[in-house]
Amino acid sequence: MTNRIESQCRTKGVRLIGQRRLIAEVISAAHDHPDVQELHRRVAERHQGISLATVYRTIKRLEAEGIVERHAFRDGPARYEKASRRHHDHLIDLETGKVIEFASPEIERLQDEIARRLGYKLVGHRLELYATPSRRRLEGPNSPSS
pTM of the prediction? Predict the structure, then answer.
């Protein structure tokens, strides 16, 4: 079965053979935003001989072709995801490092309005929210302080 990354590679003339194909399969199957070390760990579970350098080179190539997106959340390592067809933003849990994707029509409208007010036409943006779980979330919805 062909994954989305393989299809994009074929469209852009990027050859996926052997180890590159395996790396593309792993990133395509990721439902999180792994860094290169984590991608290497996942790929190495399926092919022990793959080097970290091969993962780096492949990810850089996929990024250069616009097939994967690189995110540098705060001071952490670069993390990657499949290039999205739909715009979304990210909330990063500072305690766990978990990245939560979200979309908000209200935020999109407000950004357009701000750009327009300042005399600009918004052509793109990236929004990253950094947060820690609220006390209410930690305690649960039925806790006495809720």
Answer: 0.71
CA 71 to chain centre: 6
Same-domain check for residues 70 and 25: yes
For residue 61, the number of C-alpha atoms closer than 13 Å in the C-beta half-sphere is 18
Tell me, what CATH number does 8's domain have? 1.10.10.10
| Long-range pairs, 138-144, Cβ under 8 A, ≥24 | none
Domain enclosing residue 55, as ranges: 1-84
The closest of 134, 131, 130, 132 to 74, measured between CA atoms, is 130
Q: Dump pLDDT digits (tens) for 85-112.
A: 788 999 999 999 899 999 999 999 999 9
Q: Does residue 74 share a domain with residue 23?
A: yes
Residues 146 and 128 in one domain: yes
The total of structural domains in the chain comes to 2
